[in-house]
Amino acid sequence: MAHTHADAPSELLVRHIGLLKGAPDPTALDVACGRGRNALFLAENGFKVTGLERDAEAIAAVRAQAAARGLDVTVESRDLEAPDADLPLVAYGLVCVFYFLHRPLLHHVRNAVKPGGFIVYETFLIDAHLRWNSPKRKAFAFEHNELLDAFQGFRVHLYREHVDADSRTAVAQLVAQRA
User: Is 157 helix (H, G, I), strand (E, B) or coil?
Assistant: First the structure.
């Protein structure tokens, strides 16, 4: 069973929005934002959101939804897997990544978070690839504890690796704060 995104924001983000509002400023970066389900939710909760996405149709959808709802969301067209891809340094109070993994970008994601700011990350765990071939490419799934290791030095509010055989899903989740 492949992972599909609903229009609803991530439960991880919804569950921790009270904590995330304590970021040093209300700027947020949604890496690989897709059709904007999380970017729009963050904007509804007072964040000034920048979304990065390479799919033109998805970018148009986010922009249309943000405009229709009067939300402060900017979406930039960006190929995050390009060899020269990077992110601004210490620029955001919150950085979130959902169902995207490109290991060369991980240190840029880490460095984009301001001191006192938060990272929220959720994506496939290696078990999903090994058991159900979802994602099809092993490179798109974190090994056990790899996500946790990538944010060493951050204060971890939540780290979870969850395998659910009934729904055929396995995810790694992190909510952490930069010192």
Answer: strand
